[in-house]
Write a structure and sequence with these properties.
Helices cover 43% and strands 20% of the residues. The chain is an alpha/beta fold and 310 residues long. It is globular and about 50 Å long. 48% of the residues are buried. It binds adenosine-5-diphosphoribose.
């Protein structure tokens, strides 16, 4: 294939993302992990599925970065996932070290790549990768809003017994309990859900969305969600690889947009071959503004904590 994507971390999210990238025949895939044999084994297993799945994407696995040179996109999933009782923020000290190291290693061989960050706590890990890479802000993007919106859409479709394909949803803010699902901008076939559901049902769905990750963690017990996170990262990668210019909610570095300065947080952006090509500013009500500001404060706290680790 003429495009190449490196996925760092060959665990649950990384291997699933590699599978989806290959099966959609978007690019060749290099899987990298620190554990010897795991990326090689998973890449070979996925390559052996290709004749049946009918694609010609090449998959390779490695413990070093040489194979991944000149990638168009690098998806960073390396790190530890949370266990029951943990918040995403509890991962910060361990994952900050991992994300810093892998970013430094990957940008040495892929200086023109777009980085898609998946490791948690997401918004804080975007700051780590942004600093460690020295990349311009448009080439460091966090995966959170697409996942949170997909969860919101799933629950809307379940509630109204309609096709998920008819649903759209917007979730702004940090990837944590302070995220800001926006019912006014969430629709079924273009009709705002505020016209279709009672407020108490919308509130229940909003709450389930904000706690969507924790719901999966409490069921799995040994790790966190990975099918939907992988799908979300691959939707972002596809928009970049094909220069589709989709508007998707992603964590991006704001410099005054939405009144927020020097902070990665989730807002709608246009994703094309240059990465984030535009930040879309939508009008928010006073309540929504306050909720976004509260979410930004939570990310600022983590950003400040990162400084204490340095
Ligand atoms: N370099 C490369 N890979 C690493 C490194 C490193 N320095 N450190 C850890 N890894 C690898 C692990 O060996 C493991 O294979 O990252 C992988 C993580 O996989 P899982 O434990 O299965 O975790 P996963 O569910 O994929 O989640 C990864 O994404 O959604 C977030 O919160 C989640 O931060 C977590 C990350």
């Amino acid at each position: 294939m003429d495009k190449k994507v490196t996925v760092i971390g060959a665990g649950n999210v990384g291997a699933t993302a590699a599978q989806r990238l290959a099966e959609k025949e978007l690019c060749d895939v290099v899987l990298i992990d620190i554990i010897e044999g795991v990326p090689q084994g998973k890449a070979l297993d996925l390559a052996e599925a290709a004749p049946v799945e009918k694609h010609d994407a090449h998959l390779t696995g490695s413990n070093s970065y040489a194979e991944s040179a000149n990638s168009d996109i690098v998806i960073i999933t390396a790190g530890i996932p949370r266990k029951p009782g943990m918040s995403r923020d509890d991962l910060i000290s361990t994952n900050a070290g991992i994300v810093k190291t892998v970013t430094q290693q990957t940008v040495e061989v892929s200086p023109d790549a777009v980085l898609i960050i998946v490791s948690n706590p997401l918004d804080a890990m975007c700051h780590v990768a942004f600093e460690a890479s020295g990349f311009p802000k448009n080439r460091v993007i966090g995966m959170a809003g697409v996942l949170d919106s997909a969860r919101f859409r799933t629950f809307i479709a379940m509630e109204l017994n309609v096709s998920v394909e008819n649903t759209t949803a917007f979730v702004l803010g940090g990837h944590g309990d302070t995220m800001v699902p926006l019912p006014r901008y969430s629709t079924v076939a273009g009709i705002p859900i505020t016209e279709l559901m009672h407020k108490d049902r919308i509130d229940a769905i909003v709450d389930r969305t904000a706690n969507g990750g924790a719901e999966i963690v409490s069921l799995l017990k040994t790790g966190s969600a990975f099918y939907a996170p992988a799908s979300a990262a691959v939707e972002m990668a596809e928009s970049i690889l094909k220069d589709k210019k989709k508007i998707l909610p992603c964590a991006t570095y704001l410099e005054g947009e939405y009144g927020i300065q020097d902070l990665f947080i989730g807002v709608p952006v246009k994703l094309g071959s240059g990465g984030v090509e535009e930040v879309i500013e939508i009008t928010l009500t006073e309540d929504e503004k306050q909720a976004l500001e509260k979410s930004a404060d939570a990310v600022r706290e983590l950003k400040a904590f990162l400084k204490t680790l340095a």
